[in-house]
Amino acid sequence: MAIPEHPILHFQFLKVELKKQDWRRFIDSDNPVAAALLAKMGYTKKEKREVRFAFLQMMLRLREKLDPARFMLIMSVADLYFMPNIKQDEEILQELSKQYPEEGAAIMDLMPAWKRWGYEEGIEAGKEKGKKEGKQEGKEVERNNIIHKLLDKGFSPEEVAETLEFPVDEVRNCLNSKRTLR
After folding, report:
1. What pTM value is reported for the model?
2. Residue 180 reports pLDDT greater than 50
């Protein structure tokens, strides 16, 4: 920024090209920004798993130096860049568990994507179970309603059982329970 013949302000920025940085230079760093950006640094496809493993080791080391909010922010940023693979992360998690057996719960904190996947799978399984149970309960209610309607029309429990091909005891139980959910 300037006015004629008088410079007022001059910005000069250094350009850092992460793809040109060797990720190995930053592994021993205690810099959380370096950890978050590790996935954007220069590595080959063959090294991708090695970088992810090294990143998670680095985060194990840094977790005590960071408050939980910053820790989760770095993990979230890294997950966006790494685009974690469930199978690969399972293998890495097992390796980390063997290498650091005393860090059990802390290792799971390294995997926010795992938590999302597990949460989503749990919700989906719950929906499926709820649908099945709801359908079964609906069938039972409807069956009981039909039994009650036939009994209300004057049919005997034996006639209802024979017509609907239900056991007589089931019809009598329905009659005794007086459970009508119309």
Report:
1. 0.53
2. no
Phi, psi of 156 (to 5 degrees): -80, 160
How far apart CA 104 and CA 127 sit, in angstroms, is 30
**pLDDT tens per residue across span 84-96:** 777 888 888 888 8
Question: Looking at domain 124-177, does it have CATH number 1.10.10?
Answer: yes
The pair phi, psi for residue 2, each rounded to 5°, is -160, 160
More confident residue, 9 or 179: 9
Residue pair 107/96 in contact by the 8 Å Cβ criterion: yes
Share of the chain above pLDDT 90, in %: 0
CA distances from 10 to 15, 16, 126, 142, 148 (A): 16, 19, 60, 79, 88
110: nearest Cα among 85, 88, 78: 78
What residues does each domain of the chain span?
16-115, 124-177
